[in-house]
Structures are given as C-alpha cells and as structure tokens.
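Appendix B, record 7
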Amino acid sequence: MLTKFRAWVSYFYQVPWCVPAWGWSEFCVTAYCILAGKIKRGSYSRQLSDAIRAYLGVKYVLPVNRGRTAIELALRALDLKGDDEVVLPSYVCRSVLDAILKVGVKPVFADIGPELHLTVDTTKAVITSRTKCIIVPHLFGNTAPIDHIERMIRGTGIALIDDAAQSFGSRRSGRLVGSFGDCGIISCGPGKALAGAAGGLLVTNRRELYDRAVEIPLGEENAAVVTKRILSFWVWRRFRKYTLPFKILIDRIVEEKEEPLFEAFQISNLDAGIALQQFQSLIRNTRKRQQNAKVLLETFGIIGNYGVSDFSNNSTLIKLVLVLSDGKLLVENLIKQLARAGIESQGGYVPLHQDGGNGNPSLPSTERLWKNVICIPLDIRYKNQRKLWTEMLPRGL
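Structure tokens (predicted):
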C-alpha cells in the first residue's frame, strides 16, 4: 500500500507538462462570459480576427472552433475532392490527417529532415500529377523551410497551406508563419503559442478562397459543452501541478468514455476571448520560455548538444525539444529520470504512416528520428529558473 501511495504522490510534478500561461486576464474573461451569458456569442471573435489580421498583415481571417476545422475548410475551399492528393509529413499531429480524411481526399506522407520538418527534397520526392495541395506544418515553435517549398511549387498549380498551429508568432525569411502560401492555419489549442481549450483560425489573402470558406455552413457549439471544456481546462490543465494525481485516480475508478466525434463549429465567444488574451501576452510569454530554455540547456550540459529548438527571436518556443543521437541516452530512460526529478516530459509524435495506411511508405529519416525525440516543458511561472533547475536536476540526473 505504501508503495502505491508513493507512486501516486510522484505524479505531483514540480514542473508538469505544458501548463498554459493563463492568469488573471484569462480568469476574468472566463468569469465574464459565464456570468454575462456570453459564452457562445459576443465581441471577442471579431476582436480576435481584427488583431490577427493586423498582426499577420493578411486580408481575411475566419475564426473557427479548432485548427483541424480550419484545415478542413481550407481543403474544401480549394475544391479538393476524390483522388486529389495532399502531401503532409508523417511526423505531425494526428489532427492534420483527420482533417484530410474528413474531406475525403488522399493523404500522401513525406519524409522529414534532421530538423523534424518537411524539406524541399522530401516534398519533391512524393509529388505526382495528382498532387493538388501541400500542407507544411511548423513544429514546436520552430519553422519549416516553407519559403523554399513555396518557390519550388510556384507556377505548378499546387496549393500550399501554411500550418502555423504550433509556431504562431515565429518568422521565416522575415515573414510571420501563417502568411505563406494560399492560406494559413492557426490553432488555439493546448500546448500552442495561443494556448486554450479550443479555437482556430483560417487566414488568407485570397478573396475567392475566403468567400468559399465562409459559405461552408458551421453551427454554434452548445454553451454547456463550451463551459464544461473551459472549466475542465482550468482544473486539469492550468492547475495540473496540483490536480494530475487526482485525474489519474479518477480515470482508474471511472470508466473512460469514448471521445465524441469531432465536429466543425464556429468559434465560441469564450474561446475567442481566451485566445485574444493569449495573443496580447504572446511576446512576453515567448521571451520567458526562451530564457527558461537557455538555463535548462546549460544545466543539462552535454545532453543539450542535440537540441533542435530555435532560441532566436524568430521562434515562439513552446517546449524544449531534443533529438538524442543514436546509441546515446534513450528517450524512455531520460523521461523516467526527469520524472524522478519532478519534471514531466514526453516523447515526440508516433509517425502517422506507421498505422499501415497509405501502403506504409518507406520514410527512413522519420523512422530513425522519431524515437529519439524528447520534449521538456518550459514553465514560465518561476522567476528564478536557474535555481529551480539546478535544485531539481541533480536529484535525478
């Protein structure tokens, strides 16, 4: 019994996984929308759209309930159908693939380079006469070489979607990601630069694409569902340091319900309000995470030699990402050692092509790299980062 109790207590991490940088402004928005009955409708959606439009320098912004909804609308607005092929990396969040499958077109997985992104060569290798669109995601606050890919396909008729879901605020060749290609995608979900319980935006300079996207009917999400999701996010995400063990205990006692099928909706006023507050603190939060990451790398020593995170002002660093060299310390072992030191870290994505779909293509770089990726949270709540990490890490490393 004592052993079980100690195991349970170990989930009280000093630095838990990707706690959103929510504070009093997000709390006030939450309280206002709930108490004023403005959960579904209000002015926050328009304010968020105006802010993003001005920031990115784009003409049109369409706010929706998820990043994957924005991808779905983009593909439909591009009039993709049937045997049309959409190129995407296998090493990416499942949401991108889900949107493609929902539209009913064919996903084609491309390999990644050493920086964990699509490259010109890996993209070119899978382009065929049926390729109608390429989705270029920017991962972990870093940027993919979308400028080079954009030049490569210029004049081919192939559409380009700039997926800035994980790297909103980052720059490539002096331009903000999300502003490349035919349209851009922004996500306001967990673990993003605009961290929230839900929300996304489709951005574009093409009037005809925007008009077609707007014509696609979207309903309003139920107010009770939105409220439950936001309050749950506060309890289980924002205060994860204190609630994670109880969440684990509840999940063991209560039978887990199947996740409801994803539906596309308009963005709720409450989700838009949270995203707007996150946007207004984007630069401040980014700088704090960058400072945190530098201190953490210095504390890690040699392990940091294998980092792929960008620490420049061109990046909106969300978490510290390391790619451990083959034959070096295994990711699983490092995760366990960090856990003993009170830090909740995770591995990278499992490649999408490994589920056996799409003929299970050979993607050697993806298959070699993904098992070596470890992601470490950069909690910005602590003022003395050096003291925090130096006190914690010697106990486990």
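Remarks on this record: The chain has a mean pLDDT of 90. Residues 24-215 form a domain with the Aspartate Aminotransferase; domain 2 fold (CATH 3.40.640.10).
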